[in-house]
Design brief:
This protein has 71 residues and is an all-beta fold. Helices cover 0% and strands 58% of the residues. The strands form two sheets. A four-stranded antiparallel sheet has the order 4-3-6-7, with no helix packed on it. A three-stranded antiparallel sheet has the order 1-2-5, with no helix packed on it. The chain is elongated and about 40 Å long.
């Protein structure tokens, strides 16, 4: 289940596909959910509050509960 992420000027766009259909795509920042989208386009707005390192994780899941993550 392919997942891809692009980031530009505070906008994050995830692309996910699945033969069953994508049920949801979520974005986590440093382990906390920052947003969930249930339909394409899977876009999120995010800017860091301050300089530093952040761990961004995009998780895509299908209707059957299968999931794949990109970080």
């Amino acid at each position: 289940f392919p997942v891809a992420l692009s980031i530009a000027n505070g906008a994050l766009a995830a692309v996910a596909s699945d033969n069953i259909g994508v049920g949801k795509v979520s974005l986590s920042v440093n382990g906390k959910t920052a947003g969930v989208r249930y339909a394409a386009p899977y876009t999120f707005s995010w800017l860091p509050a301050r300089r530093g390192s952040y761990t961004l994780v995009v998780l895509a899941a299908d209707a059957a509960g299968n999931a794949d993550a990109l970080w």
